[in-house]
Amino acid sequence: HAKESGKARYALFDVEMHNAAMKRLKIENDLRHALERNEIKVFYQPIIDLPTGRLVAFEALARWIHADLGFIPPDEFIPITEETGMIHSIGQFILHHSLGTLKFWQTQYPQAKDISISVNFSSKQIEHHDLLSEIEMALNENQLPAKALKVEITEGLLIENAELAQQLLKSLAEQDIQVLLDDFGTGYSSLSYLHKFTLHTIKIDRSFIYQMDHSEEHHTIVKTIAYMCKHLKKGVIAEGVESEKHTKMLKELGIQHAQGYFYSRPVSGEDAKELIVKYNS
Ligand code: C2E
Ligand code: MG
Ligand code: MG
Ligand code: MG
Question: Which side of the chain, N or C, has fewer Cβ within a 10 Å radius?
Fold first, then answer.
């Protein structure tokens, strides 16, 4: 009896594994056509200057709207594009598309004049490409200054490829392109990164902000990161700001910039215009 049900479980497990593998295969195959089918979209989430309440930047976030599977979040498809190398074409598309959109806003709205765009770059993207010249080309193509673009990286790059990262970050700094360290506080978060690498701004991971108002410990962590960044002369952005209470606490800690659902979820380029008008008029 036990043997039989064991067999049944095994068979079920097998079916599940098979289905998961098939789905993954479908996703991987369909990803190859996602760009040409116009299924990859860029959404934009505002970054707000806390003292003035003005919208100072947008983070560009990739979206995949699959023809029959619907919305597939970036955490699901970006890792696959990294494994297959497709991250290069998709990353290039996101870079060009978001800079083009920024240029469009700037020509349409005086309120968008000083806005910049933050673009995420994965380690894979940086390791296999001449990213610097690609970035310069994209800026030139859209007649945008270096300050229009912020490069978001994660600690992974600094750990996996310290030498290359150091070179790239140095040359980005020489071109006046600011580099933001994303998801700070998760992963390894060695403090030595903060002075070893040319990082302009730290983005405090949303897991700390999220619990700040009901956990004294999380509040202390945010406070300490803010203090450290202030004395190291680095900018700070709080991610995942979801409530008025969060913004109040962040202001009290002297944190300059905030991003999160409290201000807006990531929106389409079309809807972002309303946010520019709302925050900067
Ligand atoms: P990330 O760069 O840390 O982006 C912030 C993520 O937090 C976004 O998720 C955003 O929608 C979400 N978020 C923002 N505010 C809030 C909030 O108040 N509450 C909560 N719960 N979440 C909030 P998203 O868009 O799903 O992106 C997930 C991750 O996928 C990004 O994390 C980034 O690592 C990666 N990613 C997205 N777009 C790209 C891209 O174009 N290139 C690369 N290489 N990675 C990307
Ligand atoms: Mg990011
Ligand atoms: Mg982040
Ligand atoms: Mg992330």
Answer: N
User: How far is it, in rounded angstroms, from Cα 149 to Cα 146?
Assistant: 6
116-120/149-153 β-pairing: parallel
* pLDDT tens-digit map of 12-23: 778 888 888 888
**222-281 per-position pLDDT tens digit:** 999 999 999 999 999 999 999 999 999 999 999 999 999 999 999 999 999 999 999 999
d(C-alpha 178, C-alpha 118), whole Å: 9
Residue 56 burial (CB < 10 Å; 0-12/13-18/19+)? middle
C-alpha to C-alpha distance for 272 and 108, rounded to whole angstroms: 12
The ligand 1 site (C-beta within 6 Å) comprises 45, 61-62, 73-75, 78, 91, 94, 120-122, 152, 182-183, 206, 240-242, 259-261, 266
Cα(180) to ligand 3 centroid in Å equals: 10
The number of the ligand 1 atom at minimal distance from the alpha carbon of 43 is 25
ipTM: 0.98
List residues bridging with 72 in a β-sheet: 64
Q: Give the separation between CA 274 and CA 112, rounded to whole angstroms.
A: 11
CA distance 119 to 148: 11
